[in-house]
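Two folds, back to back.
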Amino acid sequence: MLIYVLITLFLAEVAIVSNRFNERSQKLLYIACGFLLLFVVLLRNHEVSKDYLIYERLYTLAPDLSVLKQSFFKYYSECSSELSHSLLCSYLKTLGNSDVTNLWIVFTLYAILGVTAKMYGIKRLSNLEFYSLFIYSCNLFLLHEMTQIRAGLAIGIIFIALAELRDNKKLNFCLWIFLASFFHFSSLLVLVVLFFYKYRANPVFWSIAFGVSMFIYFAHVDLFYILKIIPSEYFQFKLELYLKEQEKNPIEVNFFNVAFLIQNLIIIVCFYYQKEIEKINPSVNVLLNMACLSSCSYLFFTQIPAFSVRVSEVFNCVLIILIPLLIRAFKPKALAEAVVLIIGFCIFYIYAFHSGIVQDYKFIWS
């Protein structure tokens, strides 16, 4: 884990000293940090990803391109992952490379695009991009670029979509979300943002919603009946996959999960300083609503743990924008910066050393 620790410490230091540079130097420094993360992705061994065996299986199951030439619909029906991933795997199989080489290409391409999309999205959404970059290195970089590469690219595109929505470009927002769904179907969930993006985040409403979700969590209310009547073949197919995955690899949704408690604490603090941070970032209400939706969905869908975690992760990605805003919310500034750094390091510890999601870093030649 040494590489991850060094990167996180370096980006923390960069965040602290970044305001000492002029605008041009800050842009160059931001780009340099992006290249650093890209090099980490490029030089990693395939054993770094905990999901490598899953992607190996998906690569094997990708239909032959000859099927696509016969019929697109037949090809699509045989896909075991999103169309973009299946198409890439099918194409790579025709190049004559070894399976290991092709899988390295898949992981590297997705991770490079994921880092690039997130860097661009963070730049557009965040007023404190270096602190957002630090928080990104503490959680999403480890979770996505090192493990869940398809979700990682989709989340990067979602950031760009949210920036478009902030500028009131609803059509562009929808197009970016549909593009994100091409890489991970769960991205379509973000379309729900259209229902509340113009409204101020209301702590009373979300307290009630959270209370209802807690009741469903503790009362073990049966949600399968409701979910099974949703008229979507693909949704029902994915639901069945989540249920089967839960049987093979049980996941426990724990209300007292440390990461979940930290997330809710951050939400409470953001509501407390809501007036202050609204003046800083025009996207804050959308981001805060999404964070609340993440917490509620985590409890609401507890009977399908894998689905619960996936939905929650789609929405809580906005924390990398929300957390740094606390720096501008209260004084003294040094204390605010220290609080943000401590939160980041706590999150990093959970993801890197406690969750079991992240494997130790190995270079490609090792």
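---
second:
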Amino acid sequence: MEMNGIRTQYNNFFDIRFQLFEHCNLSCKFCSETEFMGIRNNQYIDPEYMRSLPGIVFHTFNNKIDPSVDNIISLCFMGGELFSDDIPDEIFDEYYRTITDITKQFEQISPDSKISHIFLTNGVYRKYQRVLDIVNHFSAKITFSYDFVGRFTSNYQKVLWNKNVQTCMRSNIDTRISLVLSKPNINYILSNGIPFDRNLIIVTHDYVPRLDYHEYLPSDDDLFNFYKWCIDHLEYKIPLIDTIVSPMLSGELTDNYCMTTNDYIFNKKYINKYNSTHICQCSDIPCSAEEYYGNYGHLIDNHCNCLGKKYEIGLQKRGCFTCEHFKYCPKMCWTQILFQHYPLGECPIKRIYEYISRDSELISRMGG
């Protein structure tokens, strides 16, 4: 597939996340943001920042989104914890205004876009009615974070989580669950299974925990064992496993190195854009180009940080370029290779492809 084809195919999808504030009602011991950004040290909620976001959105995206294309724009809103019981109702009013005005900006910039809304929550709240109200108001999806190890410190938190997930499902809200693939979580799942409907599961496969909590880092063996467990026990149809398996079964080629091309994270401190089809001058492969706009959307830097070259070296070390599965591999090991907290072993995705290839009945069951 030519690079121009990749741009045409993927550049109309925008995955945009807004971290409205850092205030959180949990202190997950594996949380990387505590170490890297100190967000748990900042419990202040700034309504002025939320009010400024629609203008920042216009500054950032005006003339950067092609209005003649049917763009797909996913708007995800998160904290901290947006729905914590100690958040005043007045701040919820700010949510409504901010999200409505942000949506209007995108409707103005790209009138024919399909815009969707997602709320990300840890699910630990008692004031459930105001949560249902805002999620229904925007016809939004809601994603509940859950981890078997390292998240909940009291039993009441798990009880609230379960109650709130069930309440959203009974209210016909599109409800998802996000699991962090840390080593303790993988070990728990392999021993005990997953007590959720598999259609609810979203797996965060590339999470990097705090550097000083190495017991949370999964090895290549851990990841392979988890992928294999999902195929054997969940009919493989959860989004992460589907991403791995479907291109192989369908023959779809994914010669690009990362599937998402318009990833934005808005934070009071910065705006990060990851554009994975940017071509770095020091490498002939796509690389992560980051644009830092600073507070309130003023462009202060625009550079390529040459991660593409580092990623290319990592792929070479693993023998990816000569691997027979490379042409349809989703190449999901971006973070794993770049951070390199532990020695790279045999590629877990390659091992999954070999596992599938050896079993014709498995291939037939999976639709191949």
